[in-house]
Specification:
Number of domains: 1
Oligomer: single chain
CATH topology: Rossmann fold
Largest sheet: 4 strands, parallel
Shape: globular
Distance between the termini: 45 Å
CATH architecture: 3-Layer(aba) Sandwich
């Protein structure tokens, strides 16, 4: 069932404005990859505040420099969002060179370097500008643990964390976001040919059906519950001795 997205828009804009007022922040900074989630976050933030900066952060993957960049710039232009680019390719290479002197970096650890570099970049810019960092992760990703701890999982606030991928697309349809963003396969753009669903081994439609209705075939439910259990540590603060 479709949400009332006019009501959702009003409520989320009010939420962002209240956060800004209480924090005393001057504006908002967010990472713009040209994907569905960051596009929705950018739109919501811009409707709540004039001082919004989208940051493109390409990092090695050719996809970052091609379609992702075009989509990111198109979305920012459509909604009048200021945009800058910080190329992180050389930074990642430097880290790999130095860490490689002490250990062979695993493939998954290499993949997670880019999201963590992007987090560092966003907070450096945001702190300099007196702004908050907006998160861009959705509910479906969070429940599957499909995000990088201390990378895209780090932010000051997230206005779409309760929305499934299905609902993000519905919201973007309602807002008239660029069609190319609404129709391309979800991807973090971390390496060539990467897509979310290929990595997860399950479709977002199946994930969202389970999250929204509790329904799904046995193998799908098992995959989701297993992913939820394995990634539980990513959704809570780290344990401390007290």
């Amino acid at each position: 069932m479709l949400r009332d997205y006019q009501k959702e828009l009003k409520a989320r804009v009010a939420f962002i404005r209240e956060l800004l007022q209480k924090s005393g922040a001057k504006g908002i900074v967010y990472g713009n990859s040209g994907g569905k989630d960051c596009t929705l976050v950018g739109i919501l933030c811009k409707k709540a505040c004039d001082n919004v900066l989208s940051v493109l952060m390409p990092c090695q993957s050719a996809q970052n420099y091609g379609q992702d960049t075009r989509d990111a710039l198109d979305a920012a232009a459509q909604y009048g969002i200021e945009t800058v680019t910080v190329d992180l390719t050389a930074v990642k290479s430097a880290i790999m060179d130095e860490v490689g002197k002490v250990c062979d970096v695993s493939s998954q650890a290499q993949v997670n370097i880019a999201p963590r570099l992007r987090m560092t970049t966003l907070y450096t810019i945001a702190q300099t500008r007196g702004c908050l960092v907006a998160g861009t992760g959705n509910r479906s990703e969070a429940q599957m643990g499909y995000f990088t701890k201390w990378g895209d999982g780090a932010y000051d606030f997230n206005p779409i964390s309760d929305l499934t991928v299905t609902e993000v697309y519905e919201f973007l349809d309602f807002l008239g976001a660029p069609e190319s963003i609404r129709t391309k396969a979800p991807s973090a753009g971390l390496y060539e040919g990467q897509t979310d669903e290929k990595d997860l081994g399950i479709s977002y439609a199946e994930i969202d059906r389970y999250l929204l209705t509790g329904e799904g075939n046995a193998s799908v439910v098992e995959k989701i519950r297993s992913a939820q259990a394995k990634s539980a540590h990513k959704r809570v603060l780290p344990p401390t001795f007290a």
